[in-house]
Each structure stands twice: as structure tokens, then as C-alpha cells.
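Data availability (excerpt). All sequences and predicted C-alpha cell strings are deposited with the supplementary files. A representative entry, Catecholate siderophore receptor Fiu, is shown inline so that the format can be inspected without opening the archive.
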Amino acid sequence: MKNKNNVSPSLNVLGHLTLFTGLYGVIGSAYAADTSSTVKKNSDIVVTANALPSLYAPQKLSGTKFTSPIADTTRTVQVVPHKVLQEQQATTLSDALKNSPGVGAFFSGENGSSNMGDAIMMRGIDTSNSIYVDGIRDIGSITRDTFNTENIEIIKGPSGSDYGRTAPSGSINMQSKQPELYTGVDASVGYGSASERRGTLDYNQMLNDTTAFRVNVMGDKGNTKGRNNINHEKYGIAPSIAFGLGTSTRLYLDYLHVQQDSTPDGGVYTVGLPGFSSTNSLLNNASPVSRKTYYGTNADYEHDVQDTFTSRFEHDFNDNLTLTNTTRWSEIRQQYLLSAVLGRSITTRNGEVYGTRLMNSSNTVNKILTNQTNLHATFSTLGVGHSVSTGVELTQENYNSYPYAFASNSVNLLNPSADTAVTPTTGYGSFGRTNTLGVYAFDTVTLTPRLSLNGGMRVDSYQTHYIGDSASGHSNLKQSDNLFNWKAGALYHLTENGNLYANYGVSQQPPGGVDFKLSSDTTDRTSRSGENINFTPEKAETAEVGTKWSLFHKKLLLSAAVFRTTIKNDAELDSTTNEYVQNGSKRVEGYELSAAGDVTDTLHLMAGYAQQNTRTDNTNSTSDGTNTLPFTPKHSFTSWATWDVADNVTLGVGARYVGTLHKIKDSASGTPSSVAHYWVADSMAAWRINSTLDLQLNVYNLTNKKYIAALNRSGYRYTPGAPRTWMLTANVHF
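C-alpha cell line:
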């Protein structure tokens, strides 16, 4: 066998942009070992160059709707490539997204209800419902593993014209691994802190000149260091086969099965932290409880099963016309019981202080069936070039929740015990279905070699039916509407390698999102979702101006952008009536700088900085004491760099900074209004013993920094950041 070929939101923004443009000259001088060579022969000059792209800087997005290179895409785009996932041992989506500034799991849920799975905040907005796999919405509040992931694509700004209803902040797409025309094996076995054990297998078999089979397998089991009672166990397999590779007609068939069993983490009570106060003297004088403290019960658990089947058919009519048809069926079954502390209704018994432990339970099934047909064409009319992508999507999403509930119980706030009986109560089932027909079209118009315009629009017609029972009675609700999303941009090439661009877009998201938690005017008006069926869609308008520079034979991409997103029709809880009203508006504005690729042949870099200024109007869901958005760091920075010290030794180091996080302003008193900013550093060392074996050591949180990674809505509990951990991995290739 053989190996695989391998409008300014800030006064100081001008200074940062000036520094950014100066990087061209600074990095250019550092790049002494240029990969190109010039040979003079007689009067001719022949230039040869290494055409292999950087593994750190993918040049195109994977979807059929994106026809321009990333360097010419008029939006902020970041890609976490497979190379970085391997080097960091970033095994979950949440871990991988730490490479994007301002993106993270900063919000740990509302009151006693903890967020489950990949609860991602981006540009001040919950983006959990805008996660896609191969361009198709991935439903369910689960923790996604990266064992079958090639790249992770992060598009910030308006994505409604790309995908239909999306969060105003943008979208996240996980690109799956696909069969290729080679035969080889990549396998890994690792052991680390808290008895973490992980093994993966990536086997690609070339069956003939046009057919290949690939299977990815994963097993992962361990505990969470720094947290008592928290553990996980998961397994996954992803076989796929491709026909017609290298020909004009191709067919891909993929299947994914993942099973996860774990103990969910409800967080730690904020007693004793700066800003905490209580009328109870025992609490008011208490020191912070240990970060290891577990407030759950021995009965807590989470069980998730995901099954997904995808077929993709591609046909090239000629070099300028391609038809793609994708069908996917996916089902996610999730059951869990999660206990979370809530520091209200405090009582004192026998010199001990007790609060409430809320029992959050779920027994749900999410299903999606979709068919997408796309036609991509390139042509010229009257000397003007066009790159057109148009298509239609038919999607049905189903949500079923079965009766399954437990009564809350009391918990010792300073010395909790997990050995507590849990009591079942009456549960209320619900059913939701949304059918969507989406039609879209995009065009990139090349007016001159330097100037191009791009635009696109999408119309979605959807029907939602919700049936549910609650303590308030029975609901049988229906809603149908149309969503119109669009975008327009312009790009001007200053040089062959650098450009300026501007983009404006509108995205809309209807009430209910993808969770179908709809309510009527008379039922559940105070539900935490605020997703009233009669609410108009939330509307986001985003403007962005930026520049991108593709250097060193397209091996290094530098980007800078200034953006502003305004969100209207935001549903917020009125603190006077305790009912949700739709009169809120939000604004997120700022700028981002990023670099990704090869600085030299041996030095590789992925880094980014974001400043986010936020404000809210006519709304109560603001951070405590201010009118800014909660759970949104004003400043954030991330970096990862590796250096090939020798032919067989690579060293890596990364640092990330997250600014102060504020909680939501609500009726809670005596809880911390914010948590402090922090720096965390990670490192990696790899030793290639021979062509088939290498060893890799990762150390996370090198300085053992104690920090708070996420805070809940009212500030009663927090999620502690992981302490110093390590992982030793043996990688085999043949």
C-alpha cells in the first residue's frame, strides 16, 4: 500500500488595519526561503513554483453554493482545517471552534436548565441552530465529534441566502471526509489525563480506477479532569463509497452512526465568587466551593444515538455546467437527566444551607429528510463573465418529545451529595413538523479583470405544525409564511494578490427556530423560549467592508474586515408583565483580523483577533448594569503556530484570550454580573519515528490557569475551564 498525497466601530480600528497592511512587507522579508525558483535560459526567464496549497489555508469552501475562492469571498470566512484538528487533537466541534475569535460556548443555560451539546455563541448570538454538515442542517442538541471531519467552515454574517433560516451571526459547516483514489490507513491510539482513552481509524481503499471505499471509526472513553462524577463514552463509524471518481458522473453514498453515553455537567454554584452576596450569613461569608464540586445526582445521565444516510450525485455536462443532487435522512435520539443548582428558595437546616436542584429531563427524537438540487454554470455574455449557482431544496423536519420528567429537590449548597433519590412526575409530550421549500440563485459577475459584483437571493416557504400538552392545557398550532433573504457584494482587486470588498445582506429566522417550541397568545407566554407563533420573523441586516491578501503562491491568507449587524423584531421578556414582547433590537459591530497559512516552508500559522461592540434597545435581555449584549467578549484573540524544527520534529504552541463575559440583566440579585477575562496557552510536540509511526504529545492550559468558561443566564452557576491536561497519541500511517 502507499501513502496518501498529502463604518468604524472603534477609534483604534485604523491603527489595527494599518498594522495589518504592514504585515505584507514584514512577513515577506521573513519568507527568505521562497518556494519558487527562477531559471534564466538564453533570453527566456522560466519561473517554477511549488503549486501544493497550504494545509492551513484551504482555498475554497466545500458547498456548491460558493463558487469563488475564499480569498475572493466578500464575507469573513474562517476554516479550521483537518491539519489543525490533528495537531490540536480537537476531537469535538466546540474544541475546534476555539480557533475562531469571539466564538465559543460562553452561555451555560437559563436558570436551572443547562445547555446541552454544542451551545455556540458567535457575534453575540446563539448560533446552535445554524450548524450544518456538508451544507445540510444538523439538528439536535448534541456534542459533535470530529473523527469524520475534513474541515470546519465558519461563515460570519448573513447566511440566510445560503441556507434559509439561520442565526443572524452566521453559520458553521462541518465538511465530511470522502473516498479518494488512493489506498492507505491512518490510525491513532491515545491516552491522557483523567484516564482519557481514544482510538481512531481512517481506512481508504481504492477499488479500481474510478471507485473507492472509505471508513472512519472512533472510540473514546474517559473522565473530565477537574470535575467530580463527570465522564463520557462514545463510539462512531462512518463508511462511505464513491463511484465515478475522476469522471464526469460521480455518486457518493455515506452513512454515519454515533452513540454517546455520558454524565452531563450542570456546573458549579457561584457562591463566594466576586460579586456574589446573600442575605443568608452562611452563604455570604462562604468561600468559593471547589471547582470539582458536582451538584448532580447519581441518576444523571445522557444517551444519544445519531444515524445519518447521505447520497450525492454529481454530473458534469461539460467543463462549465455541473448538476448536483443531494439527499439526506438523519435521526437523532436523545435521552438525558441533568441536575443543575439554582440558588433561590434558600433554607437553613441544622446549620446547613440548602437550595433547589432542578431536574432537567428529555426524551426526544429529531428527524430531517431533505433533497437539494443545485446547478452551477460559468459563461460569458457580451464580454461579461458569470458564475451562477441556482437550486431548490425540499426539507421536512420532525420533532417528537415523549413524557419524561422528574421533580426538583433540595441540595446542600456548600456540600452537595449526589446520593439523592429522584422522583418521577407527570410529563407532557409534544410533536412538531416543519416543511420547507426553498429556491435560490447566486451570480458572480466579472465586469473587468479587477472588478466583480456578486449577489444572491433565496425564498423559503415553510409550514409549521405544533401539537403539545402542558400544565396549561393542550395546544394545536399551525403557522405558514415566506422568508426572503438576500445579499449583494462588490470586490476590487488592488493587485493580483490583494483586494477590497464590500457586502450587505439580510437574514431572517422565524419564531420557533428549529426546536418547534411554539406558543400561542394565551398559552405559555412566559416560556423561556419566547417563541410565540404569531411573532414576525427576526430580521438581521449586516454590512461588511474588508480586504484580503493571498500571499506566497496562495499559501498565506491575510484578512481584515469591519462589520455591523443590526437585529430587529427580537423577542424579549418584559420584566413588568413577565411576558415576551417583540420590540427588542440589538446591534453587534466591530472588526476582525486573521492570518492562516504558511509563513515559511517550516513555519505555519493560524491566528485571529476580534473586537465586538454591542448595544441593545427596548429590551431587558442586556448584560447586567449595561446596555450591551451578554456572553459576548469585547476582545478575543486566538492563535496556533507550528514549527518544523527538523525533518522529524515539529513543535506547536497556541494562545487564546477571551474578554470579560457579562450575564443577562434580570430579576436575580446577589449573583456575579460578569466573569473575568483570561488567557490560556496550549502546546504540542510531534516526533516522526519513521515513515509509518509518529508520537504526539499535547499539553493544554500550560499554566494551569483557573478561569470561568461559561456563565448561566442569572449568574447562579458557572462552567469551570479545564485545568492543565495532557494527551499522548501514537499515529500510524501506511
